[in-house]
């Protein structure tokens, strides 16, 4: 299963052309349909924005850049359980007081500039935000422009077990490098949104999570056998799910199934899901055409409120 991508759906007549070549993934064709543009043509005609993943180029004019005032940022590595050095991007408030730790789980595009800016925004809000490159063993996702190569060569090779174990190591590292690891949150987007649900079921030390449009249903794969809805009864911390009502890859019917499951298992404190009716998949991604400013602002406020309640304490 590959998040940040969506299944086949009817295509506008204007797009039944060579812009929908058969070698594309069905999900990539759906991205084209929802944005009304062709990614490869954009790559030829647009300007390359430094720091952003190659598969996301060119970036939209709505891209937000957070200033670095009153925060510090750095790159580091953490030794994972298998001995691999996982690259990290870290942003945290300036000062000596340890800040609660939020792990930021990237999309399929890896730890590129937008994920780093999310870390900066969280640092501005008083958190030690750490984004691990959970694909690093398999290649640099930020450098691959072709979706099919990205999915087959990197994303599909990241096992659930490795991902969850790496995140465990990140919290331990953060607790030794200026973070207060006794207060733990996690957020993620698309591929990373699914990971948030899974990690909340995995870790008994987690205090709260926010999952942005992460897949909750589907079929298990050999390396990714976990399905979020099947893990709902195991959640150790409350998760806020934030989804778009126009997301064709994660339809509202799937969201309703997850909401019903969360109610059925009756965890306390309870998890919750918010649907933004006019938003599509990727509505938080201000660097992409899917960005929905109204939904993104409301969702970010809800995110900080959730972490303020369950992580900061």
Descriptors for this entry?
alpha/beta, Rossmann fold, 8 helices, 31% helix, AB_hydrolase_fold, Dienelactn_hydro, Dienelactone hydrolase family protein, hydrolase activity
CATH topology: Rossmann fold
Helical coverage, percent range = 25-40%
Report the sheet-strand fraction.
Answer: 15-25%
Question: What would CATH call the class?
Answer: Alpha Beta
Per CATH, the superfamily is: Alpha/Beta hydrolase fold, catalytic domain
User: What is the number of independent domains?
Assistant: 1
User: What are the secondary-structure elements, in order, as H or E?
Assistant: HHEEEHEHHEHEEHEH
Organism: Sphingobium algorifonticola
Keywords: Hydrolase
GO molecular function: hydrolase activity
Protein name: Dienelactone hydrolase family protein
General description of the model:
Keywords: Hydrolase. 31% of the residues lie in helices and 18% in strands. The chain has 313 residues and is an alpha/beta fold. It has one domain (13-312): 3-Layer(aba) Sandwich (Rossmann fold). Strands 1-2-4-3-5-6-7-8 form an eight-stranded mixed β-sheet, sandwiched between helices. Helix 7 links the parallel strand 7 (239-244) and strand 8 (272-276). The model is unreliable at 5-47 (pLDDT under 50).
Q: Layout of helices and strands, plus pairs?
A:
Elements: H1 26-35, H2 39-45, E1 71-79, E2 85-93, E3 99-105, H3 113-124, E4 128-132, H4 147-153, H5 160-175, E5 179-189, H6 191-202, E6 208-212, E7 239-244, H7 252-265, E8 272-276, H8 293-312
Parallel strand pairs: 3-4, 3-5, 5-6, 6-7, 7-8
Antiparallel strand pairs: 1-2, 2-4
Helix pairs in contact: 5-6
